[in-house]
Structures are given as C-alpha cells and as structure tokens.
Specification:
Radius of gyration: 15 Å
Number of helices: 5
Oligomer: single chain
Low-confidence stretches: none
Number of domains: 1
Strand order of the largest sheet: 1-2
Distance between the termini: 27 Å
C-alpha cells in the first residue's frame, strides 16, 4: 500500500510546486519522513510518509531554481519551518535526512540551500538501478553501485 500513497503525495507536491525536480520530490519526502523507532535505515528507509510536512516544504521551495543555480543558493522562499508535524494530537520530529547510496545525510542545508544533486538530469540512487528496458539520461547519472 505504500506505493500509491507515496505516488499520491508526489502528485500533491507537484501540484503545490510544479517546478520541483524528481530529486527535490524524493529529498523532501525523505527529509520530512517520520523515523520509526526500533528500526535501522536499511529496514525502514527514511521512515514513515509525512504528507503534511512534505507539502509544507514543497510550497516553500523557490520556483526560479534551474540547473545553473549556484550551489548554496537559498532554496526556500522563507525560513525552514520547525521540523515537526502534529497529526491527531501526536507530534513527531522529521527525519531531517536524505539517503544517498546507503549513506544517511543529515542537516538543515539539505533543504535550506540548493544542492547540485537536485538538478534535472541527475539521478539520486540509494542502491542498485536495475532495468529490463532502456535507461536514458540527458544529464548526469551518479552511482557507487551498479547501473
């Protein structure tokens, strides 16, 4: 059941901000996820989907960012909100991290400042990319694993 929920959330993010790149969508979903206690990163990924937090961030991402935007440019139109979400009276803290190739990268600058990995044509991969069809790129594919 996770796939349709994440797909629907990705659609909501793009509705809130059509200028998001696929990597921005992925990073926002991971950054705002709710970590599950008792599970490591390999068992849970970034954590449980947080629709409210993800949409909140998507609305703040500037719409004038391009592939030529310099590294470290402010990515949000406004301040990064408090990394917490309250649902049905339960408040939880976001993971505030993104997973890159089995590495857990944490920090506010993942969303506060533009990262070159968010460019169109760049693939964020957290493991192995397998295809039984065609893989096409008009940009950069980065992998420490197998493509």
């Amino acid at each position: 059941m996770a796939a349709p929920q994440v797909a629907g959330t990705a659609a909501l993010l793009l509705q809130a901000n059509p200028k998001l790149t696929p990597n921005m969508v992925k990073a926002i979903l991971m950054y705002t996820a709710q970590p599950l206690s008792g599970y490591n990163t390999f068992e849970q990924g970034a954590g449980q989907l947080n629709v409210e937090g993800a949409v909140k961030i998507a609305k703040l991402v500037r719409k004038d960012l391009t592939n030529s935007t310099p590294l470290g440019t402010p990515m949000l139109a406004g301040a990064l909100p408090s990394p917490k979400t309250t649902v049905a009276g339960h408040t939880f803290t976001w993971s505030q991290a993104v997973i890159f190739d089995y590495t857990y990268v944490k920090g506010a600058n993942l969303l506060a400042k533009y990262q070159k990995i968010y460019n169109t044509g760049t693939l964020i991969s957290d493991g192995t990319l397998i295809s039984d069809g065609t893989l096409i790129s008009d940009g950069t594919l980065i992998s420490d694993g197998v493509i």
